[in-house]
Amino acid sequence: EVQLVESGGGLVQPGGSLKLSCAASGFTFSGSPIHWVRQASGKGLEWVGRIKTKASSYATAYAASVKGRFTISRDDSKNTAYLQMNSLKTEDTAVYYCTRLQRDYCSGGNCFFDYWGQGTLVTVSS
Amino acid sequence: DIQMTQSPSSLSASVGDRVTITCQASQDISNYLNWYQQKPGKAPKPLIFDASNLETGVPSRFSGSGSGTDFTFTIRSLQPEDIATYYCQQYDDLPLTFGGGTKVEIK
Question: Pick from B43, B55, B98: which is nearest to A118 by CB?
C-alpha cells in the first residue's frame, strides 16, 4: 500500500521555524520527485516547491512566496522528504501536503500528482 | 507565471445533471493539464491527466477535453458522491499552478 505521511506541523510564532517530514512507503521513493503543496483554510491549492531525484542532482525549485525561507531536502535511505520553514509569516498558515510526481522531467506528458499525504497543519500566530 | 482561471467558482446542480467546468491558461500549455477532486478534509485525488486521460479507477462519467489555453472538465451525470471541489493544474512550466477551484454542490 502506498503511503505518504506528513508530520511536524504545529503552532509557531511569526519569525519562527518548523521542519516538516514526509515519510513514504509502498513505492520507489528514490526514483520519485517530491513536491510540497499547501492549502490555507477555505482556500485553493498552492504549489510550494519540489525536489528531484538523485539522477537530477536533487534539484530544487520553490514558489516565489517561499523562496529564500523554505528548503526542501530528502534522505533516500530513510524514504523521507523534509520541508524546512524559516522566517515564518502568518500567511504561511496552511495545511501542507507532500505529493509525488511520476518523474523528474515531464516533457513527454503523463505527469500528475498521483500520491498524496493526509496533510499536516501549520499555524503561524502570536 | 502561468495563471489558471477556473470557472465557475461554485455551482449547484441536481443528481443526474451534466456539469461542466472550464479552465483557461494564460499561455499555451499544450495538453499539460490535470484535474483533481478534493473532498472536505481530504487530500486531492487525481481524476484526469494530460487534459483528457482518465486516471485508473476513476468512473467514466468524468471526462476532460481541450488543449492550448482552453480546457473543459465534465461530469456526465452528477452523483451524490461527486460533491467536492475540483481543481485544474498545469505542469507546462514552473511554478506549477492550480486553478482557483470549483465547488460542486447538490441542488
Answer: B43
